[in-house]
Amino acid sequence: MVNPIPAKGAALLHQLIRRLPTLRFTLVEGWWDTAGEFTAYPNVHWVPRTYAMGPIYAANDLLLVPSQVEDAFPRVIVEAGLHGVPRSARPAAAFPRR
Predict the structure, then answer these.
(1) How far, in Å, CA of 18 to CA of 32, rounded?
(2) CA angle 29, 34, 39 (to 5 degrees)
(3) What does the DSSP assignment read for 13-57?
(4) CA–CA gap between residue 28 and residue 30 (Å, rounded)
(5) What is the reported pTM?
(6) C-beta separation of 13 from 34 below 8 A
(7) I need a labelling partner for 83 at 20 to 30 A (CA). Which of 1, 2, 15, 62 fits?
């Protein structure tokens, strides 16, 4: 997940991390540093803010985009798709379904 803040679905992310302890979650810092909220979990890999997302997409099996607010254009969804990474997003975060 990129930008794990409340508006982007941090509460749901906390639940998933706790309920799925055998899965590894890679979190990328976004608008502000929320590392303190997540790095205590043993199954979380925290990545500082970066523009070099290609290696991050390549190292992960799924992009989670659980935004709680409507995003005008969720670039991470497009970027992950261009790197062949499946995406799971709430309708508020995703492009309209057709």
Answers:
(1) 22
(2) 95
(3) HHHHHHH-TTS-EEEE--SS--HHHHTTSTTEEEE---S--HHHH
(4) 6
(5) 0.85
(6) no
(7) 15
